């Protein structure tokens, strides 16, 4: 049955560039916080401290068990909080400062200990970062979902945020090289020089977001949402099958890159560059730069295509490019490839950045449908599940990548002298994993049903039912 006709509420004026940049600043910081550890973990803890790659993956993945409880709890607390500073900003401030502190302390481990000790150090540091990151990212994402109500303006806001997220991605891709140079080839010493700089940057950018970003819902005097149990929140949220499709597609799209990312690093260093860590780190930096810069350049086109053809169709197009980039890996990751190594990243970049631009925008649309039916604004809970899905993708990919690397027959002591069969298996996984994950993600997005007309009707019904502010 069609929803009753209603007049949508008047749209708020578009956010200025300064506000959008201030909001996006924490995207730069949170990406540094979570991915600086992931970028360096295998090089430092496996190749330098001799923790097995499978255990490195386990140490990075274990904290996701915490996220299963932390993210929904933080989302619910943030939805219900009423303070003079708003619902979201107190959490963002605390989370950013804690994340900066953990990102610094992570690399100051004692020397001369066993691989088992370093495994537990990495696992403990990853768990501490999981707590800090949940406190930061869940309310931060919810703040973005509620800043604007216009269907297309949401995509514009997420586009600005994604530009800054991708800019920090360039920093992440060069971390290994910078740490290597800073330490004179000693990754541990270099990490201790670079980590405090990263920590201050992460905390400072969180402060900027808190200082310069308004809370529209709080300013409008919105009543607090009714209290529901954690189990009920999970049931309502996961009952939105379009939202579940977005979460699963997000996991698969990130997984299409990350589940085999460590395999790509080892192929780059030991197959393409014959065991030269210096050359491999150099090419890794350029590969990541091409990926992030390509994503930044794609964002304006994604926003425009979304406005013209729709969010769903634009997302499907970028997923197709992601699969094409996966196929290109087979031909470009060969000995002496040189700059051809950058082609797959250029092709895959739009698909990866589209996740950051379009899926949060589509989630905000789903929040409108939810409010029209339930009477509650639950951006915190929806973003908690969305953030959890991202972290499942990241940690699950890292966990699997360590085991996948081991299952290919990789032997750390052999380095570039692996058997031809091992390198062949690694190449098949590196290429096929990307294509397979992208194909399943496209199938999921193909069933997404939310339209601009449905969102406008839901906003009108919610506005009519919403109690007036005192």
Chain-wise SSE layout:
Elements: H1 17-46, H2 53-61, H3 64-80, H4 89-105, H5 115-147, H6 151-182, H7 187-212, H8 216-219, H9 230-238, H10 241-258, H11 261-272, H12 277-309, H13 311-332, H14 343-374, H15 379-407, H16 420-446, H17 452-465
Helix pairs in contact: 1-2, 1-4, 1-5, 1-6, 1-7, 2-5, 2-15, 3-5, 3-15, 4-5, 4-7, 5-14, 5-15, 6-7, 6-12, 6-14, 10-14, 10-15, 10-16, 11-12, 11-16, 12-13, 12-14, 13-14, 13-16, 14-15, 14-17
Give an account of the 3D structure.
Helix 2 runs antiparallel to helix 15 and helix 4 runs antiparallel to helix 7. The longest helix has 33 residues. The protein is mostly helical and 470 residues long. It is globular. It starts with 16 loop residues before the first helix and ends in a 5-residue tail after the last helix. The chain is 77% helix and 0% strand. It has one domain: Up-down Bundle (Growth Hormone, Chain: A), CATH 1.20.1250.20. The protein contains 17 helices and no strands. The N terminus is likely disordered.
């Amino acid at each position: 049955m069609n929803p009753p006709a209603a007049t949508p509420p008047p749209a708020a004026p578009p956010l200025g560039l300064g506000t959008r940049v201030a909001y996006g600043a924490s995207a730069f910081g949170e990406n540094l916080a979570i991915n600086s550890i992931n970028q360096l973990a295998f090089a430092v803890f496996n190749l330098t401290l001799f923790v097995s790659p499978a255990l490195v993956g386990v140490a990075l993945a274990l904290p996701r068990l915490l996220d299963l409880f932390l993210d929904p709890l933080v989302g619910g607390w943030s939805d219900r909080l009423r303070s003079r500073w708003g619902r979201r900003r107190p959490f963002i401030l605390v989370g950013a400062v804690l994340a900066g502190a953990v990102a610094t302390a992570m690399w100051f481990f004692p020397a001369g200990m066993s691989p088992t000790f370093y495994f537990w150090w990495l696992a403990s540091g990853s768990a501490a970062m999981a707590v800090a990151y949940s406190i930061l990212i869940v309310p931060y994402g919810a703040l973005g979902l509620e800043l604007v109500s216009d269907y297309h303006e949401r995509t514009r806001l997420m586009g600005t945020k994604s530009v800054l997220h991708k800019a920090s991605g360039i920093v992440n891709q060069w971390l290994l090289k910078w740490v290597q140079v800073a330490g004179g080839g000693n990754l541990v010493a270099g990490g201790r020089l670079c980590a405090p700089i990263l920590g201050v940057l992460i905390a400072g950018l969180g402060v900027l977001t808190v200082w310069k970003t308004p809370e529209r819902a709080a300013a409008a005097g919105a009543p607090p949402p009714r209290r529901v149990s954690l189990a009920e929140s999970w049931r309502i949220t996961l009952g939105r099958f379009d939202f579940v499709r977005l979460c699963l597609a997000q996991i698969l799209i990130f997984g299409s890159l990350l589940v085999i990312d460590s395999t790509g690093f080892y192929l780059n260093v030991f197959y393409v560059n014959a065991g030269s860590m210096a050359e491999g780190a150099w090419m890794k930096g350029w590969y990541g730069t091409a990926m992030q810069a390509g994503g930044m350049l794609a964002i304006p086109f994604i926003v425009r295509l979304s406005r013209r053809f729709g969010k769903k169709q634009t997302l499907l197009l970028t997923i197709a490019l992601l699969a094409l980039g996966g196929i290109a890996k087979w031909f470009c990751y060969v000995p002496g490839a040189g700059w051809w190594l950058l082609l797959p990243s250029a092709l895959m970049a739009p698909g990866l950045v589209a996740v950051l631009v379009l899926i949060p925008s589509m989630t905000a649309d789903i929040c409108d449908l939810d409010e029209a039916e339930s009477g509650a604004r639950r951006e915190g809970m929806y973003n908690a599940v969305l953030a959890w899905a991202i972290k499942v993708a990241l940690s699950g990919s890292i966990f699997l990548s360590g085991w996948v690397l081991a299952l290919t027959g990789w032997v750390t002591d052999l380095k570039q002298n692996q058997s031809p069969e091992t390198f062949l298996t690694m190449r098949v996984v590196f290429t096929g994993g990307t294509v397979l994950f992208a194909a399943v993600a496209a199938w999921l997005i193909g069933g997404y049903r939310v339209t601009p007309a449905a969102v406008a009707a839901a906003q009108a019904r919610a506005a009519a039912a919403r109690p007036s502010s005192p």
